[in-house]
């Protein structure tokens, strides 16, 4: 029979399968199929290298209100002059 490790049944915290007389785990009473065939990878507190640095700070989110508008470009205002010059003939137009 192969060795079984941690229990994967919902929130069960059993770390090692130990066979009981009724073919269930002695610790958590779950069947062997709920126990993993592979060992969990080591977590931070069990690693050989322990950093003395503080962990990175958690991000802080801000709720910023943004006004959204539709941009409509407007032509610049025309200069008002008293003297209005109109073209009187096609030949007078500059070429």
Keyphrases for this structure?
little secondary structure; 95 residues; 0% helix; single chain
Q: State the separation between the terminal residues, measured CA to CA.
A: 101 Å
How many separate helices?
0
Mean pLDDT: 79
**Residue fraction in strands:** under 5%
Structural class by secondary-structure content: little secondary structure
Number of strands: 0
Poorly predicted runs of 5 or more residues: none
Helix content: under 10%
**Biggest sheet features:** none
Radius of gyration: 40 Å
Shape category: rod-shaped
How would you explain this protein's 3D organization?
- The protein has 95 residues and is largely without helices or strands.
- It has a domain of 41 residues.
- Helix content is 0%, strand content 0%.
- The model has no long low-confidence stretch (mean pLDDT 79).
Present the secondary structure layout:
Layout: no helix or strand
Short description:
By secondary structure, the chain is mostly loops.
